[in-house]
Amino acid sequence: MPADQAHYLRTVMRLAPGDPIILFNGRGGEYHATIDALSKSNPSATLGAFSDTDRELPIHVHIVQAACRSEKIEHVLQKATELGASSFHIVRSERSSLKLDGNKLEKRIERWQKIIVEACEQSFRTAVPPVSWHNTLEKMPAVGACYTLHPEGEQQWSTHRGQILNAADVTLAIGPEGGWSPRDLAILKSMGFNNLLFGPRVMRTETAAPALLAAIQSLLD
């Protein structure tokens, strides 16, 4: 077992050798296991039965989040993972405040992926959503039914609920703190995104994706 995981089980969860735990590898399903040792030098557990547990949403929801302040991105990754997002795509937009490249980008993606894994542990998800960085809007994916969350959207959420429920994939594009620029909106429209108005209030950039994911989950449940 990784040393940091053993430390967490020992000092936070107060577990000891002989206690049962559940392990997952991020590719679906989970393993029942028993702790053998939680020592700093050689923490280990014995695997038991495999359970093909599936707690994923029946719709794959892909979150495109315009690059913004790092703590806001981390909030989106954590909450949207707990709510069932399938993948994350952080993208530079015209009004984005965050710029990353080279070694700094690599370290940031590692941190983001760690936050996602911890959110999976919290929510008992067995599939880990990937996160990627895109320098331009044109390079990000547009999969399935695509929507741009925009306070001046031409189409109401209520009119698209049926289309979302019948889609295998949904891509939601959330703007930065200053919102999508006219140029951004034109590019997104050319890629097949529809401007969607989600309620009468203007949300912060870190609120939009979790709010819409919760609404989609309520329709499915």
What do you see in this structure?
There is one protein chain. By secondary structure, this protein is of the alpha/beta class. The chain has 2 domains: 3-51, Ribosomal Protein L25, Chain P; 60-220, Alpha/beta knot. Helices cover 34% and strands 24% of the residues. It contains 6 helices and 10 strands; from the N terminus they run H-E-E-E-E-H-E-H-E-E-E-H-E-H-E-H. The strands form 2 sheets. The protein has a 7-stranded parallel beta sheet, sandwiched between helices. Strands 1-2-3 form a 3-stranded antiparallel beta sheet, with no helix packed on it. Helix 2 runs parallel beside helix 3 (102-123) and helix 2 packs parallel to helix 6 (205-220). The longest helix has 22 residues, at 102-123. It starts with a helix and ends with a helix. The relative contact order is 0.16. The model has no long low-confidence stretch (mean pLDDT 91).
Q: Average the pLDDT over all residues and give the rounded result.
A: 91
Strand line-up in the sheet with most strands: 6-5-4-9-7-10-8
Please bin the fraction of helical residues.
25-40%
Number of domains: 2
Overall spatial form? globular
Order of helices and strands: HEEEEHEHEEEHEHEH
Largest sheet: 7 strands, parallel
Enter the CATH topology name of the largest domain. Alpha/beta knot
Beta-sheet strand percentage?
A: 15-25%
Per CATH, the superfamily of the largest domain is: SPOUT methyltransferase, trefoil knot domain
